[in-house]
Amino acid sequence: MLKYAKQSARLYGIDLSGRVLAASTPEYGDITANSSVSYTRGANQDTGDNLYNIMPLNAKLARTQQRGRWTNTLEAHFVAAKENVSDIRNEVETPGYRLFNFRSSYQWKQVRLDVGVENLFDKHYALPLGGAYAGQGTTMSINPPAGIFQQ
Length: 151
Hints:
The chain has one domain. About 0% of the residues lie in helices and about 45% in strands. The chain has strands spanning about 10-25, 30-45, 60-65, 70-80, 95-105, 110-115. The two termini are about 20 Å apart. The relative contact order is 0.15.
């Protein structure tokens, strides 16, 4: 059973983001490119184990077109495999994945209509921070909840 205890940890990482106007034409409007990259690493200095629930390397790339009252965005989200997991917490490794999303909106004076499709190609993926439920039982608490009978 896990208990709270003071331990030394080290966290480091980097977040980069940028935005650029890629094109501006009368027929297509303004086209911008947005990107962000994030990497975080964490280790328990006392045990040498990895820290729990740390997002692996990931990046988002988006291309947005704005013409008049219309805005359209195509977004790609890339996530590396999660291999640096916490052994003591039985953290699950997850494979990397790619997701593509599409969003569109139309703006009136005081109203905006938004539509979108998340996971455009309907691909299965495992969230790196999703975790796994290990099950209810005597390890979940000192005294089991009412209705849980021990054999």
